[in-house]
Amino acid sequence: MCDPASISFDTDDDQPHITSPHTLASLQAASRCLLENLQPVAFPTETVYGLGALALSAEASARIFSTKGRPADNPLIVHVSSKSMLQSLLPPNYTLPASYQILIKRFWPGPLTLLFPSDPTKIPSIITANHPTVAIRMPSHPVARALIAISNSPLAAPSANSSGKPSPTRAEHVLHDLEGKIGLILDGGACEVGLESTVVDGLHEDGNIRVLRPGGVTVEEILKALQNGFSGDSIPSVLVHHRDFVDDAIEQAPTTPGMKYRHYSPSVPVTLLLTVSAPPEGVETSTPLVLLTSLKSSTTSRSPLKVGLLTPSESVVAKILLEDPVIQWHQYPLGSLSEPAVIARRLFDGLLTLEKEGVDLILIEEVPEENEGLAVMNRVKKAAGETCWVDLQSL
């Protein structure tokens, strides 16, 4: 167990100060695994646990793909520990746009990933999936940042799970999924954010900020930072993929993780209960009682049916469903709708906990797509195999 509280960074110093001998020894062992053996290591970040390997080594990075079973056309995010390390990766004479300078000053270190022009003489093509851009961020978790600094090398690191599964937010999640596939896991406790980083593309000629993947930094926070940093009419627009723009090319050949493939799915079926958004014209809705009847009719020889519930604490649907004594309910409260950051933090842990409890089906209730709720619903929609519109107006 690494003690994050024992690690600190001075403002003007790229090197960590570590007061715990055990934590230092663990970080040094992980660094040797990365540098000498070119093997991937699992480590905590503020978002989710990452599976890291040397970003500048194609051989080391290839082992991330083989360990996870990750498709080769799904690019990786590169993690740095300092601004000087970032600068060392960028093309010569590249100047950060004003928008990036503002976002880096406000959100780094933290859960924000930015797209930069890639220098192919430095960044292996396996990292970028042969794109001309590379995704980079500086994590704020002390263990992650210290590991990168001690290794003195940027680390490519997707989530530390089998490809397509829910991202791990605790070391035990990693162990349960990847045991026998990796040699070292740094346990730094539960992840504070619980969802992956927000990925931003600010490289277009119009200067606007395109959110390719919502995550730990909200769209509202990005817009506020830009408004505070720019003056007058020069403030860039913040555009969210799918909500504000569609790019077919980027969906077929994504420049960042989490866009093309189905993700975040446990081994049991997941159904999304849509209680906030209006159904498309012609789509039938169900009441909670109709939903209950449908669940019971789906039961075969297995009895009782075990159903996991991932719902906000205010959920009317959960209250009605839980009154039924026939189905064996496994409830994992997500938290209050007034605290979307808590819901984000609990989402993946809830999916993995219910999967481990052996449920036959997981029901997740929709939350408003505001603040962290936008990232929550981005993940839930990818995890769910089915959707069901639930009418609460008639209750």
Descriptive overview:
With 395 residues, this protein is of the alpha/beta class. The strands form three sheets. The chain has a nine-stranded mixed sheet with strand order 3-4-8-5-7-6-9-10-11, sandwiched between helices. It has a five-stranded parallel sheet with strand order 14-13-15-12-16, covered by helices on one side. A two-stranded antiparallel ribbon has the order 1-2. Helix 11 links the parallel strand 13 and strand 14. Helix 4 crosses helix 8. The radius of gyration is 22 Å and the shape is globular. The model has no long low-confidence stretch (mean pLDDT 93).
What is the topology?
Blueprint: E1 7-9, E2 16-18, H1 21-35, E3 41-43, E4 50-54, H2 58-68, E5 77-79, H3 83-89, H4 98-107, E6 112-117, H5 125-128, E7 133-137, H6 142-151, E8 155-156, H7 171-178, E9 198-201, E10 209-213, H8 219-229, E11 238-240, H9 248-252, E12 270-274, H10 288-297, E13 306-312, H11 316-321, E14 328-335, H12 340-356, E15 361-365, H13 372-383, E16 386-389
Parallel strand pairs: 5-7, 6-9, 10-11, 12-15, 12-16, 13-14, 13-15
Antiparallel strand pairs: 1-2, 3-4, 4-8, 5-8, 6-7, 9-10
Helix pairs in contact: 1-6, 4-8, 12-13
Keywords:
single chain, 395 residues, alpha/beta, 9-stranded mixed beta sheet, 5-stranded parallel beta sheet, 32% helix, 18% strand, globular
